[in-house]
What we know:
Elements: E1 2-6, H1 11-22, E2 26-31, E3 41-44, E4 62-65, H2 77-100, E5 107-111, H3 141-159, E6 167-173, E7 175-177, H4 184-193, E8 206-207, E9 209-211, H5 212-224, E10 230-234, E11 240-241, H6 242-253, H7 263-273, H8 278-281, H9 289-294, H10 303-322
Parallel strand pairs: 1-2, 1-4, 2-3, 4-5, 5-6, 6-10, 7-9
Antiparallel strand pairs: 8-11
Amino acid sequence: MKIVIPGGSGQIGGILARAFHRDGHEVVVLSRRDLRNVPWRVARWDGHSLGAWRDELEAADAVINLTGATVNCRYNPANRRDIIESRVNSVRVLGEAIQRSTEPPRVWLQAGTATIYAHRYDAGNDEETGILGGSELNVPDTWRFSLEVAQAWERAFDEAGPLPGTRKVMLRSAMTMSPDRGGVFDVLFRLVRFGLGGPAGDGRQYVSWIHDNDFVRAIYYLIERQSLAGPVNLTSPHPVPNAEFMATLREVRGLPFGLPAPKPLLELGALLLRTETELILKSRRVIPTRLVRDGFEFEFPTWKEAARDLCRRWYELSKPLSG
């Protein structure tokens, strides 16, 4: 297959590009910057205007758009503008490019976020009966901004319109857990190793996640399954409360205790690290009903088995660094 990945220079793009290239597929990453020492092809684009990169879409089997400025930052006016515009503009220009294609891509997988669902503890949010965010009372302004981002992202994808010959899938993705340095699992596992792996806040908020192997397998599945279009939750079927999530990490590391992080301490830490506590404190209880009902089988459906595998691979990556 020929697979084009706009915004594929980040961690998630690297996970997918490595997997597709390993399996013998033609991979083209569209990036704003030069990428060296990668075995796949890189084409330059700016994420908002048409250019020579448009030719890469011709006869592609899949386009997987991951473009978007990082949300791991303080939500000041400048960052808010970059976060929304980078997502919306890339979707718009891709839609225009596909409309102009002589032989358009078979499928367009568009990155989105599970953050679009409401903060809740009582039940899981799926694609059909889940509650979309926006009606929660007394939530911080930063939480409302994250919802605005999710909604603007999906609205731009819808406004790209029906594209003859191209199936459209919106990926409402949870956190992808991989052992790669700088990723979510790496950060959390290092906290555990330093004795800081207790619950965040009251620990009741649900954590939705997906193992990187299952993430790649689900992307393959969505490329091939002609029956699946529209929003698809890309998450493990078993989200867990934060306290249980961190306790499992401590267990696989062999540590019985981790210092808790009360909300005021989290707020201070987020300020110092130039990020937002919404990424930690919002309850994301999201269920992948459409994938499961369609027959997709998770290799790592539960957090304990996923954490064990990620821990083992994390240490394997560490061996050359310590040698």
